[in-house]
Known about the structure:
This protein is of the alpha/beta class. It is built from 18 helices and 14 strands. Helix 5 runs parallel beside helix 6, helix 11 packs antiparallel against helix 12 and helix 12 packs across helix 13. The longest helix is centred in the middle third of the chain and has 32 residues. The site of nicotinamide-adenine-dinucleotide (NAD) has 26 residues, from helix 1 and helix 5.
Amino acid sequence: MKVCMIGTGYVGLVSGTCFAEIGHDVVCVDNDEEKIKILKEGSIPIYEPGLGTLVKKNVGARRLSFTTSIREGVEKSLFLFIAVGTPPKEDGEPDLSSIEKVAEEIGSAMNGYKIIVEKSTVPVQTGKWVKTVIERFSKKTRDFDVASNPEFLREGSAIDDFLHPDRIVLGVESRQAKEKLLELYAPIDAPKIVTDIESAELIKHASNSFLSTKISFINAISIICERAGADVLKVAEGMGLDKRIGRDFLNAGVGFGGFCFPKDIKAFISIAAKLGYDFRLLREVDAINHEQMLLTVKKLEAMLWNLKDKKIGILGLAFKPNTDDMRFAPSIIIIRELQKQGATIKAYDPVAIDRAKKIMSDIEYCTDPYSMAQDVDAIILVTEWDEFRGLDLKRIKKLMRQPVFLDGRNVFDTKQMKDLEFIYAGIGR
Ligand code: NAD
């Protein structure tokens, strides 16, 4: 089947490549000329494990191509997926101007029946607007359907998440769109839930909000654990064994970040407000998350006495392991707060340094964890990259000015760190 993926970012490039992998003809479109140039030259513009190989394989098989022209993609394809960004505005509302622009261009390029599918995370009722805009701008034909197919992939394991998802959600308003979408996804063995468009749009926001709530919940519990002398890892284990709760997303840490959770809960709060509901629960989830990052800095201050003129090493910058994505990364808020208190920063991340440099030019970037540890007064582990688990901690300790280690993701064992004579703290332990 012929697929056009409009927006070739983390979601669009992975989804387009995976559609090609399951046998469809895919053209990925982006208005970022540099990105398309990189892809045409055979490289990929983001870090995502396994993606480079899969792109190469499907380009070689002539099932995957790239262009900057929406018209070209629209004319060739039956499915037009919209996977452009929906970043938050100042007030937390999502900025849907890219979606509108794409809908205009689709409308004016349509040359026959098309199924326009929202893949981006959008507020409920966006489908209605997409339909209206396409109708207003369509010149030759008004024969089309709009559908919603929210994406649940996670950066770092995106290919596996796309090809082996827990579920595929299809929001449709016609039998034809339903049948075609089921045919498109037929090679993927997963439960397929077919709903109306509004319910599909809401499933995405409700899911992300629920997962964010779980994280803020365990972070709140971690504070109580510290004050009560309990261990949040044990508490999470005990809770997680209850099948109604589950262990996933019960990892206490410095707070969540990334391009989805922080913006999606803010968007959901504003969507609810527009519908006349004050989503107080989510406002608290958001506030607890922000406080958790500031509490991390307060905790380090308690370990060091004063932060002014201290040199702090940051281990891990990306918002989570296995990605170079720095959007809304907790490291940014923690570093800014440390700098506000007068500290200077050294940092190491296995893949996110180039992106971090564009956001923070006033820190010292290091090429490995050991040069980062040299002469620092303390280390905060912010991102739990696997490679950090194998660090030579004795060597790290020798290099540091003071052996203060704040483990923001509970990667290390408390006893082991104390035996190594670190002044060590985790989160909620
Ligand atoms: P991204 O910024 O990586 O990609 C968006 C792409 O769209 C960019 O390459 C941009 O150049 C392109 N674009 C913007 N306007 C365009 C236009 N008018 N024409 C053509 N291309 C245009 O963003 P992303 O992380 O892929 O997220 C996309 C959407 O998917 C968002 O709504 C996000 O919330 C949602 N989502 C993201 C993830 C994730 O893990 N990143 C997971 C699920 C859902």
